[in-house]
Amino acid sequence: xxQLLKGIFKELGIEYQEEHYDKFDxxxxxxxxxxxKFNLTGITDLRDIYIKHFGDSLLLYEGIKATxxxxxxxxxxxxxxIPLKIAxxxxxxxxxxxxxxxxxxxxxxxxxxxNKRAENAAREEAYRELFDVVVAxxxxxxxxxxxxxxxxxxREGIFIAMKTDNSELQSAENAMKQLSVEILxxxxxxxxxxxxxxxxxxxxxxxxxxxxxxxxxxxxxKKPL
Length: 225
Description:
The chain is α/β, with parallel strands linked by helices.
């Protein structure tokens, strides 16, 4: 897998060092082992883990490497937060994962895990409007995802929604308006060594979030903006 990882780094323009492989190899082994106990991911083939999890996550590296703080909402088994950290993101990183079993897997060195629902954590002073960038991968439809994520970022901060296309943009227009964000760019890429298309959408926050957002537990999902 070392040559595959080197190839992914090369295609994405990320500087590769030998220690990267050691850490990714350990991470993949832990993922496979823990997946026997907890349903962390449906992807268990080693090559698929490197491409569909690691490669997919690292598509964001260039877009976040200059930021000072990051929160990964609905991190699951640690994607994209842990691969970004391993690849060289040195700043404050918080992985938000409401599922306790998954959160226990994520307790690795130099990364803080918040075992709470987004609707609750985003109302706490320790998290609300404190991050430069928020990332989320395969968590919810965009209109719901915006309400989960935008309250975490500072004014002028960035929210990155990891999607396959922009088909949800139109239905999310009201959420964008209510949460004061605008689309900055759509980063369309193919995951290295695959034919899997990605459209990572970057949103900029233009005003502080109204205190009523996010709404209480379960409401964003039941009644999207």
